[in-house]
């Protein structure tokens, strides 16, 4: 059974709510959800400032929680939803985790490592290819980030 656009939008709304948690903590508002068998198995939101951890991006936090939930670092047959195109660190972790499908909201032309600054989704040196789709609820995801940075200028 395939995933519908409505399912993708619903999970991205969940990720957006998590991004708002990050924003409330003064973090860049990015949220992530790991889904397996139509069920959320893990969540994460940006927390590098609060956690004093440069690797505490929303995706990494969610991947760590998902690994604990399934008892394995390989997260086969899962989908990761994240509000912003992942960076190079996160794309490396997504590949190593064997995430089947990646769905993100806002594109990141300057630092995105899926299809912009780097195209790691197609990198020949990675031994796992991640199916991906960008632009799901793109306007909402982009607006959250834009308003966050505008408020700080």
Placed side by side, the strands forming the largest sheet appear as 2-1-3-4-5
Q: What characteristic shape results from the CA principal axes?
A: globular
- Main beta sheet: strand number and arrangement? 5 strands, mixed
Highest CATH level, the class: Alpha Beta
Give the C-alpha Rg: 14 Å
Q: What is the CATH homology-level superfamily?
A: Cytidine Deaminase, domain 2
Determine the CATH topology.
Cytidine Deaminase, domain 2
Mean pLDDT rating: 93
Q: Assign the CATH architecture.
A: 3-Layer(aba) Sandwich
Instruction: Give the uncertain stretches in residue-range form.
Output: none
Structural description of this entry:
- Strands 2-1-3-4-5 form a five-stranded mixed beta sheet.
- The chain has helices at about 5-25, 50, 60-70, 90-95, 140-150; strands at about 30-35, 40-45, 80-85, 100-105, 130-135.
- It is of the alpha/beta class.
- It has one domain (about 5-150): Cytidine Deaminase, domain 2 (3-Layer(aba) Sandwich), CATH 3.40.140.
- The mean pLDDT is about 95.
Summary of the model, kept short:
It catalyses: adenosine(34) in tRNA + H2O + H(+) = inosine(34) in tRNA + NH4(+). This protein has 153 residues and is an alpha/beta fold. The protein has helices at residues 5-24, 48-51, 58-70, 88-96, 138-152, and strands at 31-36, 39-45, 78-84, 101-106, 131-133.
Question: Layout of helices and strands, plus pairs?
Answer:
Elements: H1 5-24, E1 31-36, E2 39-45, H2 48-51, H3 58-70, E3 78-84, H4 88-96, E4 101-106, E5 131-133, H5 138-152
Parallel strand pairs: 3-4, 4-5
Antiparallel strand pairs: 1-2, 1-3
């Amino acid at each position: 059974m395939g995933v519908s656009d409505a399912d993708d939008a619903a999970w991205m709304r969940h990720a957006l709510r998590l991004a708002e948690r990050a924003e409330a903590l003064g973090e860049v508002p990015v949220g992530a959800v790991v889904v397996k068998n139509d069920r959320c198995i893990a969540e994460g939101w940006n927390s590098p400032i609060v956690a004093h951890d440069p690797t505490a991006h929303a995706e990494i936090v969610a991947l760590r929680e998902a690994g604990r939930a399934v008892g394995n670092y390989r997260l086969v047959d899962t989908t990761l939803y994240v509000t912003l195109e992942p960076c190079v660190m996160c794309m490396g972790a997504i590949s190593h985790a064997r995430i089947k499908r990646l769905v993100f909201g806002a594109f990141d032309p300057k630092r995105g490592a899926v299809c912009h600054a780097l195209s790691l989704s197609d990198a020949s040196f990675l031994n796992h290819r991640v199916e991906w789709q960008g632009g799901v609820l793109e306007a909402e995801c982009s607006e959250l980030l834009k308003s966050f940075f505008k408020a700080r200028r």
